[in-house]
Design brief:
CATH superfamily of the largest domain: Head decoration protein D
Structural class: mainly beta
Distance between the termini: 38 Å
CATH topology of the largest domain: Virus Head Decoration Protein, Chain: A
Strand order of the largest sheet: 6-5-13-8-9-10
Largest sheet: 6 strands, antiparallel
Helix content: under 10%
CATH architecture of the largest domain: Beta Barrel
Number of domains: 2
Radius of gyration: 23 Å
CATH class of the largest domain: Mainly Beta
Strand content: 35-45%
């Protein structure tokens, strides 16, 4: 026998998997909650999440009483974060004043400004709600309308942390336990929200997040009882 002994061992390769970032957690799975995960993206284990509060928005052509009554066949698309700062619950409207301009009002009839429609890469409208209108093969005419209804979220939606946001997702509120595909719609998923230790090298942060932003979010996780090692 050599001194010290020569040990031969096959390296252990650990692939990315649900909960792989956990070092320890409270007994009985008290560290985990089932929540709604969104963000119009794929969310991987270890992704740091914020809790998007406020509401969700659905849009359709025409007024609330009569759908699909527009002359123009263009479309409206809500932004990935459809409800922004100041958003209210209720029915918003975007009514065409010309082929390319829509006057936007809030649920109480107050003017929020104009949205511009375009055939490609339409500019985004963002004031309480965020969307873009694309011109179709048949032009819009004055009076064409889109309705946008904002409904309350019961407990909010977990989305990937976004330090630049103002809808709640700028604050770290948990970590995705497993993989979920929220590309097309919000889906249920398991979120680690308390009483655990995590491997900091296995956490996934937003692209471009600064050291200061990561430090601030890490402190927010610590306040929840999620300790980074």
């Amino acid at each position: 026998m050599t001194n010290p002994p020569v040990l031969t061992q096959t390296p252990l390769t650990e692939f990315w998997h649900a909960g792989g970032f956990l070092v320890s957690e409270a007994r009985g799975h008290r560290a985990r909650d089932v929540g709604t995960i969104g963000g119009a993206t794929k969310v991987y284990p270890g992704t740091v999440l914020g809790l998007q509060a406020g509401g969700i928005a659905a849009a359709w052509p025409g007024n609330p009483a009569q759908e699909n009554n527009n002359t123009g066949n263009g479309t409206i698309a809500m932004a990935g974060t459809p409800v922004v700062s100041g958003g209210q619950l209720g029915m918003y409207t975007a009514i065409a004043t010309s082929a390319t301009v829509f006057a936007v009002t809030d649920p109480y009839g107050n003017s929020l400004g104009n949205a511009t429609a375009a055939a490609s890469s339409p500019p985004a409208f963002s004031n309480q709600i965020a969307f873009a209108i694309t011109i179709g093969s048949t032009p819009f005419v004055a009076g064409d309308e889109f309705s946008i209804e904002v409904e309350a979220l019961t407990a909010g939606v977990f989305v990937p942390l976004n330090p630049a946001a103002s809808d709640g997702s700028q604050n770290a509120a948990g970590i995705s336990f497993g993989f979920v595909d929220a590309t097309l719609n919000d889906v249920p998923g398991t979120v680690v929200t308390r009483e655990c230790e995590v491997n900091g090298s296995e956490l996934l942060w937003p692209t471009g997040a600064t050291a200061a932003q990561i430090a601030a979010a890490t402190a927010q996780l610590t306040a929840l009882g999620i300790i980074t090692r």
